[in-house]
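Appendix B. Raw example, untouched.
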Amino acid sequence: MFQPNVLRRTLVSFGRVTGALRGLAALHFAHPGSWTMAVLLGLGLCMSLAVASCQLPGGTRGVVGPSEPMVDHIPPLSHGFWLGQEPNIRVRIVEPTAEVVIAGPRLVMARDEGGGVRMYRTPVLARVAGGGLELVEPGGVATKVRGVLELSSGDPKPVGFASSGTREWFRDAPTIALGGAAYAGVVQLIATAGGVQAINEVELERYVAAVASRELYPSWDAAAFEAQAVAARSYAIQSMGLSTRLERGWHVESGTIDQVYPGHTTHERSIAAAMATRGKILVYGGRVLRAYYSSTSGGRSGSAADTWPTSDGFEYNRAAPLQAHKVVHASDASRFHRWQVVRSASEVTGRLRAWGQSNGHSLRSARDVTAIEVVRTNRVGRPAAYRVGESNGVSHVLSAEQLRIALNTSVPGLPDVTGEQRVRSGDFEVTGTGPRLVIRGRGFGHGVGMCQFSAQALAQRGWTAEAILMNFYPGARIERAY
């Protein structure tokens, strides 16, 4: 069947290749000693065009169904959910900053928006100058670039030709070194008003393996890693659609605001988990589940609806599998299963007041906090909201997650909240009056969805990844997206 979209992509790819070859020829005239490298890279580009025509990961983009663009209201799944092919995910790895250093490999290939290609020897410093990017090579030679600059490895080693999803394909990818980490795929540099921003576009399965390698302890059981891979993939695909509505240029952040992404991984257990669960996601009610998870439940689940917005645009936080349920918890092995923090009332007041000022909450006027008590719990007894009382009788109500964040707010003049002084979750009770407040808590994190320490404990008991997921996301089901 004639497929105009495929033809169009092929022609665009061919245009990029010919542009790249012109750039490589220019490189030869500028650096005659690099001709052999240019030939190898040119052959590699031609091979990449052939590979892309077979729809291996290097030539894929996220779609819903055979031709629909990814949208935030993932279509109903009554006839099955199908992305068509493995999508790429865009991860913001550097927020706008003054400058970024590309440290490796020895050569990086840079393609500008016009299709022009140039090779740079590392280290290369990228910064914003005159409204665009400026790249400074060793020796101080500076080049100005307009628009987005796409970087890929200049390593001529013929990797990436292994079949998609093999251990070699995961492990041996060429990478770009930036900000102390290595990234497979391509890295895009963008000039913004705040400085240089970097986005890593990479195949979703590479991303899933990398997230699993950072979210869990390396020695944990295979079933725990497989459950983590499915949850991470579900969260990522749901975020891809969400980013369309938000009109931003990336799908997820690389830090804890989304999922911790360390860049390229060679961790075998994480790779094996991504391979074993390839394309599998959690779905509920015709939508991909935003499969939240956290470190330690402390024995009680949190509810997404108590933790994050549920208004228009955030309806996904109402999904039944993400609310509190009586499930099997086993987080005793975590050192944060139970914890205690002692704070002075004046420190608590200062942090809550600072948070209130930043968030437009009535706590912005707090002067003398003397008590904190639970005013609402969820169906399994985990606190959902607290009342903060002052000595003058004034009180303030906020959610458990808001209070956790507020108690950890950094305030000039107060000690940094680090180590054992951090309030680890929103599940706690406060005792004491006057100058000293004792906070005794359970767990680490928001408690919504899968508890990672419990997942490992259940894996040690012989539970499968599917059983672990059905325990923590009751009512959801597992489907294959590609």
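End of appendix B.
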